[in-house]
């Protein structure tokens, strides 16, 4: 698999806190929009179409609710 | 205000006795007075008393309050207690655990093993009800007293007012026999999160309030749960927004339920309501007895400064964290470990008073780290916005199948000793190829040595440690006697203290933190580093 799902972020707690801070005080709609921008920025950084397809599939499978 | 007990006692350990101070015509002056006889106050009394420093501890009760409260005691705490001579009964009584499981709804999403590293005297954690922890400390005080340690524990001595002067503090005390006064060269406030001393001095205690209530139920049951930490996010049994199950000694289980903010405390604490939640969790066939129940809320906050002239604060009085990560009592014990030797050196004239400002710096650094970690855990456990709840559950959904999400699951980051990186008592690392875990500022990791362990030989006073090289058996520097310990470069000591280096010399503080390290012994450098470590630089 080309998609890396092993832990790859140094300081995971710090990253998570920064992610939530970015949403601090935003309305639900603004949060959704922020997430969309973030996904597009990260997708462009990844660039690899196969990896992006795998990531989409992994995220869709997680939707168990 | 009458001197009534505010809570029931688990153990009556220091009954009121009349002191000759109460009959003195003028306030008797003591070098050190400690306010508060909880674990931090008693540990402080023990640290100073074992150094031969006369210390008087005042508490408005006659012993330890009921309720398990702090239950997770970390390796570092046990190492400090070992230095004080009371870790063994804690270890004997405590429950050792390594495995934690995290559930979301009805699925196990993740399991962790503390995987304690081999070659340490103590396990990563023990679970032990706080009253036992306190009792073992007080029993050690009694032994030390019998051997001449100048410690006095005065029960039913409530401090009602303090006058803080430049070089001493005068205390107004109420006892069952009426009021009296004493004065102290130094006053240590260990009087808990709601510290009356802090209020008497009008000092601020600011931070974040977390709008949530947690119900604790300690129960005994004959159920077949393993000795593991189980944590549920949004449990399927609906007893709370999160739930925790943890084993204690005496067949007691700690169960925590997150109740939310708008609750009726009195209603929730009614036995039938507590049992309704427990029944849903444990199932209809499990019989259990309620031992203790309580509802708590918490804040993450600290005082701006822990030292105010001749008054020094330690433990919850100085800083308060959420319970996630067991960073309350464990950090308070580290406060005492840090303060004891510094106050000792100042009192005997070896170090300048300014050394105590480094207690303030170092332990504020520790408190900030604990507050950061416990705030993040709390934000994960109790998401405060829709989007943080969405992210939290996304992490939990992914964690079951994708390893990358597991480090993001945060049900508490368990207490480890902080490293005093970049703080003034350290000498710049002269062994950069050495292991990061033993860099200046770090607490020394244990390792087997001979028939015992390395830490048995460190602490109490400064020590010069030579690994794979010889250091002088004893040096005299700036009024400090510095014994040397030369050990062979082998086994765990080699891994933990040399890394890729051929040999190393460590200057180790009385609290077993590294002050400086070099590739080889150099008298002038050791002298300079020691002077720096006692605040003379």
Which key features would you list for this structure?
heterodimer; A: 65 residues; mainly alpha; 3 helices; 68% helix; 0% strand; globular; B: 537 residues; alpha+beta; FAD/NAD(P)-binding domain; Glutaredoxin; 8-stranded mixed sheet; 12 helices; 28 strands
Range of strand content of chain A? under 5%
Number of helices of chain B: 12
Average pLDDT of chain A, rounded to a whole number, is 92
Structural class of chain B: alpha+beta
Low-confidence spans of chain B = none
Taking the alpha carbons of the first and last residues of chain B, their distance comes to 48 Å
CATH topology-level fold name of the domain at 9-95 and 126-205 and 301-369 in chain B: FAD/NAD(P)-binding domain
Q: What is the overall silhouette of chain B?
A: globular
- CATH class membership of the domain at 9-95 and 126-205 and 301-369 in chain B: Alpha Beta
The two chains with the largest interface, and their residue counts, are: A-B, 22 and 22 residues
Describe this structure in words.
- Chain A: InterPro entries: DUF2783.
- Chain A: This is DUF2783 domain-containing protein.
- Chain A: It comes from Marivita geojedonensis.
- Chain A: Pfam families: DUF2783.
- The complex is a heterodimer of chains A (65) and B (537).
- Chain A has a domain at 25-65.
- Helices cover 68% and strands 0% of the residues of chain A.
- Chain A is mainly α.
- Chain B has 537 residues and is an alpha+beta fold.
- Chain B is 27% helix and 30% strand.
- In chain B, strands 2, 3, 10, 11, 12, 13, 19 and 20 form an eight-stranded mixed β-sheet that branches.
- In chain B, helix 2 crosses helix 3 (87-93) and helix 8 runs antiparallel to helix 9 (355-381).
- The longest helix of chain B is centred in the C-terminal third of the chain and has 27 residues, at 355-381.
- The mean pLDDT of chain B is 95.
- The interface between A and B is medium-sized, with 22 and 22 residues.
